[in-house]
């Protein structure tokens, strides 16, 4: 059953908030833990192999992409002394607008991947619908270049799923709720990878 919210009009923010949190928790509860484990292991492997990790998304998912870069670059670099190669394909507005204006919006991510990526690099996409043309084209180019692809998607049975090595679907059709969960997943993965370095009597002293 699709998790769609809201389904009615609300008279006050309190009741809206209650149902918003309910929708959020329902989707968090059904997150496929096996897929999450495989996704995290692939990200960890890519970091250890010093592969390039590219991240992208549209709108709010673009912000998640930039936030992902921030958390991984700062947190893991400080704690694990790793030479991270993480790149948000949404961060350079000059380049994005030039590609969109001179070529097409559909090419804003794929053109960067075509230029920068190599075999065994990793592409991570955040997309609520999983059907955005620029996301799909980025994944197609990534597969052609023999990269790995991870997708975090709100809707079920999206087109991007077929182009992904691992796809984590939320079955949630509210953009705000889905993007909230993207942030939760991103924070969970980055913090998990950080804490692996410490034994129990050291973790309490760290800020996550």
What is this structure's SSE topology?
Layout: H1 13-29, H2 33-48, E1 53-57, H3 60-80, E2 86-88, H4 93-102, H5 110-116, E3 122-127, H6 133-144, E4 148-153, E5 166-169, H7 175-195, H8 200-203
Parallel strand pairs: 1-2, 1-3, 3-4, 4-5
Helix pairs in contact: 1-7, 3-7, 5-6
Q: In the CATH hierarchy, what is the superfamily?
A: Glucose-6-phosphate isomerase like protein, domain 1
N-to-C SSE series? HHEHEHHEHEEHH
Radius of gyration, whole Å: 18 Å
Q: Roughly what percent helix?
A: 40-55%
CATH topology: Rossmann fold
Average of the residue pLDDT scores? 91
The main β sheet shows up as: 5 strands, parallel
Judged by helices, strands and strand pairing, the structural class is: alpha/beta
The backbone outline, from C-alpha atoms, is globular
CATH architecture descriptor name: 3-Layer(aba) Sandwich
- Strand arrangement, largest sheet? 2-1-3-4-5
């Amino acid at each position: 059953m699709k998790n769609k919210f809201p389904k009615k009009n609300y008279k006050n923010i309190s009741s809206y908030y209650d149902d918003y949190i309910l929708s959020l928790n329902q989707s968090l509860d059904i997150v496929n833990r096996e897929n999450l484990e495989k996704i995290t292991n692939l990200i960890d492997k890519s970091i250890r192999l010093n592969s390039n990790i590219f991240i992208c998304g549209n709108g709010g998912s673009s912000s998640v992409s930039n936030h992902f870069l921030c958390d991984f670059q700062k947190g893991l670099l400080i704690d694990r002394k790793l030479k991270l190669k993480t790149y948000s394909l949404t961060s350079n507005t000059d380049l994005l607008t030039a590609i969109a204006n001179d070529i097409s919006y559909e090419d804003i991510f794929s053109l960067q991947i075509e230029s920068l990526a190599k075999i065994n690099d990793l592409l991570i996409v955040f997309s609520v619908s999983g059907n955005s043309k620029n996301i799909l084209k980025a994944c197609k180019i990534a597969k052609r270049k023999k990269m790995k692809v991870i997708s975090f998607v709100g809707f079920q049975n999206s087109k991007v799923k077929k182009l992904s090595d691992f796809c984590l679907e939320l079955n949630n059709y509210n953009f705000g709720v889905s993007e909230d969960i993207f942030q939760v997943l991103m924070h969970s993965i980055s913090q998990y990878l950080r804490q692996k370095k410490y034994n129990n009597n050291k973790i309490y002293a760290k800020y996550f």
